[in-house]
Structures are given as C-alpha cells and as structure tokens.
Amino acid sequence: MAAAMLGGNAIGAVFGELLRVVVEVTKKTIMYKTKLKQIQEILEFNIPILEQIEQLNKKLDRGNEETEKIMEVIRNGKTLVLECSKIRWYDYWRRPRFTDKLTELEGSINYFFQTVMPAITARDTKILRLEIRGLMGSGSNGRIDGRNVSCAIPESLVMPVGLQVELAELKMELFKDGVSIVVLSAPPGCGKTTLAGLLCHDEEVQEKFKDNIFYVIVSKNTNMEGIVRALFNHKGQQYPGDFRSDEDLVYQLEQFLNSIGPSPILLVLDDVWPESESFLEKFVFQIKDYKILVTSRSVFPRFGSTYKLKPLNYEDSLTLFRSSAFLPNQSQDITDEIVVSKIVKGCKGFPLALKVVGRSLCGEPEEVWKTRAMELSKVAVILCSFSRNVVSGFYNQQFAMQHDLLRELAIRQSDLEPIEGRKRLILEISANNVPAWLMEQNQPSISCRLMSISTDEKFSSSWFFIQAPEVEVLVLNFRSKNHTLPEFIKKMEKLKVLIVQNYGFFPTELNNFLLLGSVTSLKRIRLEHVSIPPSAFTSVKLEILQKITLYMCNIGQAFSTSTILVSESLPNIMEINIEYSNDLTEFPIEICLLTKLKKLSIINCHNLVSLPNEIGKLVNLEVLRLVSCIELLELPNTIGGLCNLSILDISECLEIERLPEEIGELQNLRQLLMMGCSSNCVLPSSIMNLEQLKEVVCDEETAILWKPIMLVCKNLRLKVQKEDINLNWLYNHRS
Q1: DSSP state, 449?
Q2: Domain 164-308 in CATH: superfamily?
Q3: In what order do the strands lie in the sheet with 265-272?
Q4: Burial status of residue 119 (CB atoms within 10 A of its CB: 0-12, 13-18, 19 or more)
Q5: How far apart are CA 628 and CA 584, in angstroms?
Q6: Sign of the C-alpha dihedral, residues 297, 299, 304, 305?
Q7: Which of 282, 310, 419, 636 is at 20 to 30 A from 296, Cα to Cα?
Q8: Is there a contact between 444 and 420 (Cβ–Cβ < 8 Å)?
C-alpha cells in the first residue's frame, strides 16, 4: 500500500518501486532480513516527506535535478535487493559482500534525508526570498522585516482528529451575510492553524474563493510591508516599491484588493498577537465578498464575529494520543489503562501536547509512562492557570526549534515569582526590544541560578548589561550570522555551565571567545551549530573546565596552539564530545596532549579519515567512541597505549577492515561495540589476550566473526542487537 501511494510522481515512483521489491524479498528470504526490514522502515516512514517534496517542487516549478543522484542510487538499490534474493545457502561466501552493499544503500538513504534534503530546503527558502525581492522593482531596497512571508495555503493531507464539527461551524460563520471578519480564538496548541488550513482546503471554500485565497502567517516579527509584498508576489503582480508612510501602504493594498475583485477574496491572518488590533485595522476595507479569517489567542471583540475553538474531548484526545504513542503495527496493550487515562487527561485536550507526549512515550517501558503521568499532573496546573488572552501564540513554521506553547510553559512557570526571587530567568528578545527593567538605572537584583536568553536575527551585537552573580547555568539561543558573547559573563563568578545554541540554517561565527578566560568556575561548555574561532581553546586558560561538547560545529583550528599550549589552557579537561562536524577530516593532534582526558566521543563525523598516532598518549582515557565515522579507514597501531581504556565503540565505522594487532594490549578493555561494522573486518589473534573483555556488542552479521573466538574465551559474552529499528533521528536532532 505504501508503495502504491508513491506511484504518481518521479522520485516517489523510484522510492516506491524499491519499497515494493524490499517488501517482497523480505518475505521470501531469511538472509539479510534484518537489514532489509531496516530499509523498509526508513522508506515507509519517509513517504509523506517525499510526497511533500514533489508537491512543493511542482508549485515552485522546480525540477528534480538535486534528487537525480539519489534516484540513481535507489534504482541500483532495487537491482541489489533482487540479487540478494537469488543468493542460496551454498553461496555463503558471497553473503558478506552483499551485506556491506545493503549497509551502504541504507547509509545513502539516511544521508539523503538527514543532510541533502535539509540543505535543499534551506537553499529553496533563500531562492524564494530572492525571487520575491526581484519582483519588488528597482526602486525597492528589497528588505522584508520579520519572517520570510508566503501566501501559500499550508498542505493538509488528512482530516485531523476531532475537527469535523468545528470545520462545519467555522465555515458557516464565515459564509454568513454581513460578516466580514471572523476571529478563530483558542489557547496555543489547540489546533487553530490546523483548522484554518482545513478551511482553506474545503471544497465549498475553494469553489467560492478560487484563486483568491491568501494564507499569511503573521506571527510576532512580521510587518505590514512584508505581507503586502507577499500578496503582490502571490498574484504575479509588480510590487510598486517603497512608501513614505503606512497610509500609502494601506492605500496600495486596498487598490490591489479591488483589482482582483469582484471575485470573492479570503485573507487568512494566522497567529495574530494580542497587541495587534491597530495592525488588523489596516486590512479592513469595505469591499464586496472580502472576508478575513484571523487566528489568535485573543478574541478582538471590536472586529465582529468570534469562533472559540475548544480543546478535544476525551475520546478524541485518546484517539490522537494513541496514534502518536504507538507505531502502526505495535500492540496497544498497556498493562495499566489508568496510566494512559491520566496522561491523556493531563494533556487537557491540547492536540499539540497529546502528539508531543505520545511521541516521547513511543516504545518506552511502563515505568516511564507512570513517571510522565505524574509530571503531567503538575504541567496541567500550569496550563489551567494560563489566561486565554495572555498565553503565547502558535505559528506553523517547518523548522521551528520549539513550539511557543512549550516555551511558554517554562516562561510561565518562571514568571510566577518576582524577578528578584526567581531561580530561573528566561528572556526572549525580539529585535532590540529589551525588557524595560533591564534598562533601568536601578536594575533589580537578580539571584537566579539558571538564565536563558533567546534573540532573533534582528538583534544587534550590542549587549545590555546584566548583573547576575548567582547564575550557574547560562543558555544563549540566537539566529544571527555573527554572535558575540556578552561582556556580562565576566561578572558571573559562579557560572559552571555555558550553552551556546544557534538555531539558524547555517553555522554562526562566534566572537569574543577570550572573555571566557575571566570565568574561573566554568566546568562545562556546549556549543551548537557555530564556527569556532582559530585557537579558541588555546588562547585562554580554562583551568577547571572538565567537559566540552561541540555539536554540528565547524571546528577548524579551534585546538591549534596559540599563545598557550592546549595542555596548559585545558589542564583538567576530562571529556570531549564532537558530533556532526563536517570539517573534521583529521583529528586534532593537540587533543592528544590532554593527558587527563577520560572520555572521547566522535560521533557522525562522516568526513573523518584518520586518527593520529599520538592518540596513544591519552593514557588516562577510559571511553573511546568512534560512532558512524563512515570514512574512518583504520585504528592507529598506537591504540595499545590506551592502558586504561575500558569501553571502545566503533559502531557503523564501515571502512575499518581490520583491527590492529596492538588492540590486544588493551588489558583493561571490558566492552567492545561493533554494531554495523563490516562483516569482512579481520580480528587479529591478539584479541584473545584481552582477559578483561566481558562483552562484545554487535549485529547478526558481525557476530559471525566472533563465534570462533567465543570457543576460546569462555567468559566473553556476545550481545547481538536484533532489529533495533529506531527512526528518531528523522525528527530529533540532538543526542
């Protein structure tokens, strides 16, 4: 059935054909069943994504040039799977070669959805912005404040649970004579955006308004000019250019709406904020058959009719929760239905909460479900305390890192106390709109232990001053091309943890790194999606720093020697984690001088080719994880120098064809993980010298390598991972 759904488009047809062959071969063969089922799950999971790609390409009038390469891989994959079905038991010698090829096919599909498609999406977003600007005329400066505005109706693939009656009622209200504006009001996470999208796709609405349906996500940062430009662009009309005043802009909008009449017009303004009444007034005109649908957490009584969307009833809530908490073919028999009922009731009928909580519990043991039920009883109290006119809004943005509701839960919990008494202070700054109390001469005394500051792309690098000497954890979220660490960090004498997160599309240049040398209590640093300055970790002394985590960062020469040796700048570092670093091709030799290092993890660094011989100098290293470093060719012979190593993980290192003879010198090695490694990997005879080795974790194919050794090493336990199919990476981007 899944394959049939994909038959109507180019890339979908190719993926669908592979899926059909995989399903058929999996039923008929015993060999490769684990690997084939993994590929089947990935393909089935991504069918909606592929459909959306094809639909968007058609709307954007874009071809499939970027996907030609993966389509060729998939076509070859079909041939490979068919060849696998022909392998017989007496062709046992051929099996490892085909196992490696299937692993490579799976890796190519994963890479396409994890790396290629996000890059294409980011590129298309930029192109759309340029195309909009190109239609503005030579007199325009091309600037759109706020988010990249579009008027396209959001896709609506299926009828969501519990909105059939609401859709009919909302449509009836909108179609009433004399009603020009309908405000769809509800707390965040109730489904306002979903219902508005369903309305736009309704057959009667489509028949009435035809091509004059405009859907604009207003949100907090979008301005009037950006919306008007998008409306002109959507109809293929030349944008007149900049205007001297808002009055000129409003007049031009009215002329535009009159020009596309007398056909009926529907303008949907999604996610309008409470303070936006004057903003709404600019869209109100006395034009026949001109209707406006506003979605908001507020009611705006001055603008006429209001439709209040209620949370889901218990039955619909239970249905929605189960659809998220259980996979299609998974048993829904939970031993304690009372726990399920508590969780569903704790979500208070909010569709977003039901889906998020359901997904988080999928596949978890019953103890986790019970814990979550207790947690929700507390969250529910916070939800109930929200004023419907104060609670934060919802915007439907594909790459949003957090939903406003989830963020507002934390903010609301923090806001229950005065600033002076808060243990957690969460600040969200749009552009340069800094809270007034921060700019006062007599700034309130801040005693919080955790501080989180989020800024957007319009925030200037001129930081305000905050005096918060008690802060122990500082989180900086931003979305600018360049980000400067604030000077007030110097005054945070108790700061132990610094987390810097960029939630934009591309890595951000991080500046003012030197000031961290003034923080004498800093123990942990986590950097996400940033470009680290050269010699960043050797230009300052971080004498008590114990842990560094670099996630999706451009590392470059961050550890290269500058004025200070790395062993002097990081004398007490004990753990370094590097994940998804695309520019890491050779491991920094300088890290090998950090002799107190106990844990080193290099995960999903797909371009890492080699490790230096100097790695053998890490004599205190206890854990070494080299996971999914798919281009890593070998382990250096000096690995035998890691005399305290107890855990070695080389899972998914596909190119390692043999372990070095010196691995037998790891006399403290207790666990070796080799899931997804080549089934042709050669194990040296010295492996039997590992007297402390208690457990080897591998898959069914790799287990074959160890069976002869098991006959000699009686105390060795072989743990075979079977069909552990986990697709969380498709929607979770943090480890």
Answers
A1: S
A2: P-loop containing nucleotide triphosphate hydrolases (3.40.50.300)
A3: 213-217, 265-272, 290-296, 181-185, 305-308
A4: exposed
A5: 13
A6: positive
A7: 419
A8: yes
- 668 three-state secondary structure: coil
Give CA 484 to chain center in angstroms.
24
Residue with the two structure tokens 């596909």: 654
Number of Cα atoms under 13 Å in the Cβ half of residue 693: 26
296 burial via Cβ count (<10 Å: 0-12, 13-18, 19+)? buried
Instruction: Give the number of other CB atoms < 10 A from CB of residue 204.
Output: 10
Query: What are the residue ranges of helices labelled H in 29-136?
Result: 33-45, 47-59, 68-84, 95-111, 117-134
Q: What's the DSSP call for residue 499?
A: E
Task: For residue 500, give both structure tokens.
Answer: 């810097």
CB atoms within 10 A of CB 640: 19
CA distance 482 to 510: 6
Q: Find the length of the chain.
A: 735
Alpha carbon distance, N-terminus to C-terminus of the chain: 33
The HSE-up count of residue 193 (CA atoms within 13 Å, CB side) is 22
Distance CA 235, CA 250 (A): 18
User: Where along the chain do its domains lie?
Assistant: 2-134, 164-308, 314-385
The token pair at 716 is 């060795």
Residue with tokens 């640093």: 525
Q: Are the CB atoms for 229 and 149 separated by under 8 Å?
A: yes
Query: How far does Cα 52 stand from its chain's mean position?
Result: 18
Could you read off the pLDDT of 379-426 as tens digits, one per residue?
544 444 333 332 333 333 333 334 455 555 555 555 555 666 678 888
Q: DSSP string spanning 189-210?
A: TSSHHHHHHHHHH-HHHHHHHT
Biggest CA pair distance of the chain: 89
CA gap 608, 179 in Å, rounded: 63
Residue 696: enclosing H or E segment and its boundaries?
Answer: strand 695-698
Name the nearest CA neighbour of 293 among 267, 263, 261: 267
Report the distance separating Cα 721 and Cα 331, nearest Å: 21
Helix-then-strand count for the chain, H and E: 21, 21
- Give the closest residue to 196 by CA, choosing from 289, 297, 295: 295
What one-letter code names the amino acid at 621? L
Global pTM reads: 0.52
Distance CA 121, CA 550 (A): 24
Burial of 213 (C-beta count, 10 Å sphere; 0-12/13-18/19+): buried
Strands (E), 227-287: 265-272
Coil, helix or strand at residue 322: helix
Q: 291 near 267, Cβ under 8 Å?
A: yes
Question: CA-to-CA distance for 254 and 260, rounded, in angstroms?
Answer: 10
Distance of alpha carbon 524 from alpha carbon 546, whole angstroms:
6
Burial label for 58, CB within 10 Å (0-12, 13-18, 19+), is exposed
Task: For residues 468 and 482, give the distance between their C-alpha atoms in angstroms, rounded to a whole number.
Answer: 24
Predicted confidence (pLDDT) per residue in 514-557, tens digit: 889 888 999 999 999 899 888 888 888 999 999 999 998 988 88
* pLDDT tens digits, 315-370: 988 888 888 887 665 665 655 788 888 888 888 888 888 888 887 787 777 878 88
